[in-house]
Specification:
By secondary structure, this protein is of the alpha/beta class. The protein has a single domain, classed as Ribonuclease Z/Hydroxyacylglutathione hydrolase-like (Metallo-beta-lactamase, Chain A), CATH 3.60.15. The protein is built from seven helices and 17 strands. The strands form three sheets. Strands 7, 8, 9, 10, 11, 12, 15 and 16 form an eight-stranded mixed β-sheet that branches. Strand 5, helix 3 and strand 6 form a beta-alpha-beta unit. The radius of gyration is 16 Å and the shape is globular. The protein starts with a strand and ends with a strand. It binds zinc ion (ZN) (2 copies). The site of one zinc ion has 7 residues, from helix 2.
């Protein structure tokens, strides 16, 4: 399967040519196109993407608000996300339940609960084409069943909101916000994940001096021995 990072910007003000559009990834496999997340930046551009299906992680505006005008293709989301989407004109709705695998065309998806938001609970997805499996969690404070989510995956695709210092607070015993790249690489190391790509970039990355950002990543990468890179809009990856 081929991954195309359509957008790599988080819910932040700054935007650059590298991180212009809200975070979304397109999976292409056997001529079918599956788009994950469709934030506000995509409202007038989702038609250009021509998705055969859309899968949503959670109901924050930078992940769903591109769908306010509706769409005809099937859309997959958890019941909590559908509650927030409400009456938007999306006739073809499928419900996703955590740990209940489902197929979208020939791709297998399994949702895992994440801690990230109380109002818009998020899931991450284990995604496989048979040959290889990846995990995609663009907004994450904690993966609830981390071992089951990450074991055996080829690539972890995670949250680039913060490099070393996480953006976290705790309410009702639940973490809200964003784990740092450093924390996520430690999760990957514990589960022997060989490579990680970070999307949903925050101001540290989007507005940072590129050489400095790369140097900080290099330190984390060599410490954990995980191949690490920041995705930019348009970046493509073949996962065989
Ligand atoms: Zn987000
Ligand atoms: Zn979010």
């Amino acid at each position: 399967m081929k991954l195309t990072f359509l957008g790599t910007r988080g819910e932040i003000e700054p935007r650059t040519a590298e991180h212009r559009m809200h975070t979304s990834v397109l999976i292409t496999f056997r001529r079918k196109r599956i788009m994950i997340d469709c934030g506000a930046d995509w409202a007038s551009e989702v038609d250009r993407v021509r998705p055969d299906a859309i899968v949503l992680t959670h109901a924050h505006p930078d992940h769903i608000s591109g769908l306010t005008n509706g769409i005809g293709c099937p859309v997959f989301a958890t019941p909590r996300t559908w509650d927030i989407v409400g009456r938007w004109p999306i006739p073809n709705r499928a419900t996703v339940n955590p740990r209940d695998p489902f197929g979208v065309h020939a791709i297998k998806f399994e949702a895992f609960e994440l801690e990230h938001s109380l109002r818009a609970p998020a899931v991450g997805y284990r995604i496989g084409s048979g040959a290889a499996t990846i995990f995609y969690s663009p907004d994450v404070a904690k993966i609830c069943e981390r071992h089951e989510a990450l074991s055996g995956i080829r690539v972890y695709i995670g949250d680039g909101a913060a490099i070393t210092r996480p953006i976290l607070r705790k309410r009702d015993g639940v973490l809200i916000g964003h784990a740092s790249i450093a924390m996520q690489l430690e999760w990957c190391k514990a589960e022997h994940v060989p490579a990680a790509i970070f999307t949903h970039c925050g101001t540290e990355i989007v507005s940072g001096e590129p050489m400095t950002v790369q140097a900080r990543l290099d330190v984390l990468s060599s410490r954990t021995r995980i191949r690490t890179r920041i995705a930019v809009d348009g970046f493509e990856l073949n996962v065989a």
